[in-house]
Structures are given as C-alpha cells and as structure tokens.
Amino acid sequence: MFDIAPQRTGTSSPARHEYEKTEGFFLPELPRLLPVAYHPKAAQIEFRSNAWLRRYLSGCFVGEGDLLKFLRERVGLYGPLIAPTADEQHALDLADFYHFVAVIDTMAADHSGLGASHCGARDVFDRIIADFAAVIEPGMSDNSPFGPAARDLWLRISAGLTPHQVERFRTSMSSFLRGVASELPYQLNGSVPDYDTYMAVRRDSFGCDFILLLTEYSLAVDMTELAASPQFAKVHAHAMRQLILVNDVLSLRKELGDPMNAVRVLRRHNGLTLQQAVDAVCELAERHERAYIAARDAVRYGPFGAHTDVRTYLEGLDHLLAGSQEYEYLTPRYFGDGSVWDGSTSGWVSLTAPIARFLPQAGPASEQRRTKAVRIHTRRS
C-alpha cells in the first residue's frame, strides 16, 4: 500500500520546541477539493437527534448544564453533513450514532472518570459490544447508560445491513473501542508514540471501519466484496488519513496536550516547533486528499466504475470527507463553547482565549508565521 509520512529526523528525545509556550498558531488554508453539501432536512435531523441524545444518554452527563454544553457542539449535524444524499431516516440514524460515539469519546477523555483506567474502560466497552450484539451475557451488568442507546441503534441500523455488513459492523465497533482503550495508556502516562504507531492506533480509535461501513449504509449499497480489493484499499487508506489529519489540526486547540495527535507526534519525534508541525500536518492532509482523488478516479474510470453502486459509493466518500471537515470548522467542540463559525477556514488560532475564531494575523509579532518549509516525502510500505 502507498503511504505518505513525514520525513524522519532521527530525533527521539523530547525536542526543546515541545515545551515552548505559545499563544497560538496559524492555520493554513486547506485545499477543500471535494464538494460540501447539507442534507435538505439537516436542521430537522439535528433537532431530532438532540432529542434522542437527551432521551437515551442524558445519564452520561453530570447535570443539565453539561448536557446543554455538549448539545451546543452540534454533533447532531454531523450525519446530515456526511450523508447529504441519504434518505431522512438513514441520515438520522447516522446523526444518532455519531452522537453516541461522541459521548464515548468525551467520557474517555475524562481521566477522572471513564478514562481513568484502561481496564475499567475495557469493561465498559465490552458491555457496549454486548449491547450492540443485542446479547447480555449471564452475570454481565446491564446498568450502563450506553445499553439502551446501543440496542436502539443496533435494531435500527442492522435492519438495513446485509449479513456480511452486520458482521463487519460488529467487528468495526470492537476495533473502535479497542482503539479508544489503546490510547489511554499514552494519555495517562504522557508518552507520545511514533508516527507509524500513532496512525495504526488512530485508525481504530477514529472509527475508520464503521465510518466506511455507515457510508455504505447511508447509500443503501454493499461494498463488502470490493472493499478487499487493492484498488479500494488504496482509496480507503488515503481517505481515512485525510480524515484523521484534518481532524488533528482543526481539533488541536482542544487536544493540545493530548499525545494522540499528529501535531504532537511530529513535535516530539521530529523536533518541530508548533507552527512547523501544524504546517507539516496540513501538507500531509493535502497530499492524502489529492492521493485519494487520484485513487478514486482510478476506480471510477476503471472496470469497477461500470457498477452504479460503486459510483454512488465514491460520491458518498467525497461527501464524507468534505462534510466532516465542514463540521470541524463550525463546531464549538474545537473552538470554545459559545463560538460561532463565520465561514473562515484559515487564520490565527488563539490557544489562550476562551473562545477562538480565525483571525487574519497573530497578536505578538514573535508568534507570526515565519517557519521553514518542512520536507515531506512519499514512501512505499
């Protein structure tokens, strides 16, 4: 498989730059080569998904204030953004599912709660898997707030999957929860993995397998057989890396101290400043986006492209990548509770202000974007 990775410098000890305090960074303009579209019923779907979250998962929050803060992150809009051509029910199913996943992600990041123990998290995740399989083993506690939500999602989504997809869905949820649990030791002890290890773990914890499967679900197609082909493997590899890397730079303000972020990985192992690492990750994201488009076109205009389902699926992948990035610009999850997106996609991002927006330039002159280009190369792996 073709991969794109940052050039290694041989630096393995913490670089001095990693401990420098900075007030912010400049986010370069990302290419955005894919079409952004909103589902025609996006607002209605978001509101209905908010109600679903309150009904099934309000018990995951300390109180009404925490629940409302989470709802202001507008996770319910994610489904309508990544599946704008899906029928309304399928788009709602995705909105509810990603609400479920976002709650897990939020709770795992709380190192005084679910994220305090790798073993404790594994126990909770095992119960979630059982709930998605609609099976509660003898002696297994079923008092988790995730249980009813998982079973509701499973009943709705599994009805629209083929038997092969049902098995893939169960496997994908196991991979996701295993990935989330695998991140916890790094987060608890502060160690930073190298780039290859990071990407291997992150592919699971980001939910790449269920993201691809639910793209099929939203379009009522089954790519199970074709997904194993080298052509599709290449499409998926570049697509998922683009998703991960774009998320890493747009969520950086929220995750600055998290070792499971490509910006932190490059600072730690390649001896880069914060701005150099941001620039490098943005360049990697662009390269993967362009490589995805090339791989997608090779499939679209090759023998597989004769199938209507294949063309439909590839269009769905375009919407997935573009819609995910659109959501990450607009959500207060990454730019502070109370932030309102004005459509800007590049600029100075403050790390110290309670609420950030993209500004045309930095405050202190010393923080202006004056960095050397970071070399990035393409390799085969």
From TrEMBL:
Q: Which cofactor does it need?
A: Mg(2+)
By its UniProt entry, which SUPFAM superfamilies does this protein fall under? Terpenoid synthases
Record's Gene3D superfamilies? Farnesyl Diphosphate Synthase
Q: Which UniProt keywords apply?
A: Lyase, Magnesium, Metal-binding
- The EC class name is lyase
Return the Basic residues bias intervals.
371-381
Give the EC number: 4.2.3.-
User: Which Pfam families does the protein's record reference?
Assistant: Terpene_syn_C_2
In alphabetical order, the GO MF annotations are: metal ion binding; terpene synthase activity
Q: Positions of the region Disordered?
A: 362-381
- Record's family? Belongs to the terpene synthase family.
PANTHER family for this protein:
BETA-PINACENE SYNTHASE-RELATED, TERPENE SYNTHASE
Q: What is this protein called?
A: Terpene synthase
